[in-house]
Amino acid sequence: MALAPPITDIEQLKAHPAIARLLAWNPAVIEAVKFDRDEMTIAVERSAIREACALLRDDVNCPFNYISDVTCVDWYPSEPRFEVIYHLLSIPNKERVRLKVRLQGDSPALESVTSVWPGANYFEREVFDLFGIRFSGHPYLRRIQMPENWEGHPLRKDYPVEGYR
Amino acid sequence: MAHLSPTPTLEPGQDRTMILNMGPQHPSTHGVLRVILEIDGENVVRMMPDVGFLHTGIEKTCEAKFYQQVVPLTDRIDYLCPMTNNLCYVLAVEKLLGLEIPPKAQWLRVLMNELTRINSHLVWLGTHAMDIGALTVFLYCFREREEVLRLFEAVSGQRMMTSYFRIGGIALEPPLDFFDRVRKFADGFLAKVDEYENLLTNNPIWAMRTKGVAVITAEDAVALGASGPTLRGSGVDIDLRRDMPYSGYENFKFKVPTRSEGDVYARYLCRVDELRESNSIVQQALDGMPEGPIKADAPKVVLPDREKMKTQMEALIHHFKIITEGFAVPAGEVYQAVESPRGEMGYYVVSDGGPKPYRVHMRSACLANMQTLPKMCEGRLLADVVAAIGSIDIVLGEIDR
């Protein structure tokens, strides 16, 4: 079981099309990068996520034109508590990249990417429903899996597996 | 939440329109999909799918299980393609572990996955045709599906919830006559596909109900996150099996059927052609099936053989440890996507270094595909809604999880 150690040095990774594009735009938005198990992860500054997504989608050389997935991980009780994860795919180049936004635990909110990919709509609703993260600019931010009058957000780590009885 | 009404609804926009609820018990919604429609006579003005009736919290349950205990849960997400879900999950965990899988296990996985695709597409074809009014096709499709389910039962003991794959390989050697039975099925299957096509492809009623109906353009389909035959029916040529191969798919030769029309008929033709391609992959897998072990050589992850467990001390200890404590997976995160019969099925697994997954997220192809429905149906007739829902092949278990 030989796992290569992850690469976190941005100098070694700047050839990747997504990192190159973001560096050319504004290096300050990249908080961290990681290349682990053949997958590229870029941690993006919270306020820049929508613009970063729009840039990557419209990149000439490697357009990440497809949103595979939006999800979230709760690192309770450590802070920043939430990581919102975006999996992007470039259909012409067959390239994937993972964007990550870290959020503090008290009233987590960030900008919606539905204006970039309308397909993010249901995924963001699901993250809102199950984690309680608010997406500003989302056209219809309501619960999707749980009933509308449900209390709490079930996929948070401080929510018991059996639910509240 | 108090300001929200307990169930979502559409407000009527104009005096002449009315709100119609379709489902969640409507038979043509393939499970428990509720569709809220604003209609003006027979025309659909607005449409809003409402899901969540089957939500069982599988993602939450996974966090409380050992890695190997999650495999049976993955079957239950999408009951029409259990092996595809098994495969996607075990590939993700194997990537986290850095495990090498022996070739025979990989080929068996491909073989079982293509049989699963045939099974799933047959259910789709039968029910989709039945929705539109061609009742006969259903009986023909389920005749062959029954044979595939018998094959599943032969290898795994289960017809639908197979749980046949394990982290590091597969559960059991297939029974002795298994490959002969698969060969017999595969040899006769192409003629059966022709039979279905005889009933539908040139049938004028079928053409009227499907051609030019529920059209979606390639740009819209990509922007809305559609995948699989829903995307290929609009002319976007992507298939993860060919473009980002996994589990040894690079060793197989197959065509990826695409159509440019983007209507129900195009999606139908794509899937029927996929039946033939899947059958060809099954035959290639049978022809080239390598010899060798079916489990990776990783005693701390893969359960030992029964015989070894009873004769060797280490094997017994490993068995006991894996069952009672699970196995630790190095910290990290992976996203593994496979081409399920419905599109891009993805598993995002996060490990914190312990024996239980910290987070398992399933990227549901149907959930994304369903976002195309309003685009397909708005401005068209109410009867076309049924055709559109059938044509994107949704499984509500996967959407709601």
Account of the protein in words:
The complex is a heterodimer of chains A (165) and B (401). Chain A is an alpha/beta fold and 165 residues long. Chain A has a domain of 101 residues: Beta Polymerase, domain 2 (2-Layer Sandwich), CATH 3.30.460.80. The model of chain A has no long low-confidence stretch (mean pLDDT 87). Chain B has a single domain, classed as Orthogonal Bundle (Cytochrome-c3 Hydrogenase, chain B), CATH 1.10.645.10. Helix content of chain B is 48%, strand content 12%. In chain B, helix 4 packs antiparallel against helix 5 and helix 4 runs antiparallel to helix 16.
State the major sheet of chain B: 3 strands, antiparallel
Q: Please identify, by name, the CATH architecture of chain B.
A: Orthogonal Bundle
Number of helices of chain B: 17
For the CA atoms, what is the radius of gyration of chain B? 22 Å
CATH topology heading of the domain at 10-110 in chain A: Beta Polymerase, domain 2
What general form of chain A does the structure show?
globular
* Beta-strand content estimate of chain A: 25-35%
Order of helices and strands of chain A: HHEEHEEEEHE
Topology of chain B as a string of helices (H) and strands (E) = EEEHHHHHEEHHHHHHHHEEEHHHH
CATH class of the domain at 10-110 in chain A: Alpha Beta
Residue ranges of chain A: pLDDT <50 for 5 or more in a row? none
Described by its quaternary structure, the protein is heterodimer
Largest interface: A-B, 47 and 50 residues
Which stretches of chain B of 5+ consecutive residues score pLDDT under 50? Answer: 1-6
The CATH fourth-level homologous superfamily of the domain at 10-110 in chain A: NADH:ubiquinone oxidoreductase Nqo5 subunit
Q: What is the β-strand count of chain B? A: 8
Number of H/I helices of chain A: 4
What share of the residues of chain A lie within helices? 10-25%
